[in-house]
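The authors assume throughout that readers already know how a fold can be written as discrete tokens. In essence, backbone conformation is discretised, so a fold becomes a row of integers matching the chain in length. A single example would do more here than another paragraph of explanation. For illustration, here is how one protein appears when written out as sequence plus structure tokens:

…
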Amino acid sequence: PKEHAIPESLMPNGGRPLPKSLIIKHVWDIHFDAISNVVEVHINALRTKIDRGHPAPLIHTVRGVGYMLADASS
């Protein structure tokens, strides 16, 4: 369920990055320790499944901001 909830939380943002804190709130519905790497672990697993073998990644990290989905045309 978490693997589906993360992209679902990123999709409505129209190419704008979503901060890690909002991903945690949407996916886990809790206030979580901001130092925890739970989001990074799940994003890495998704990248392995979604982006492997494709020339352009769909999941992007915006350093210091958060994560976003964007295709090659964005």
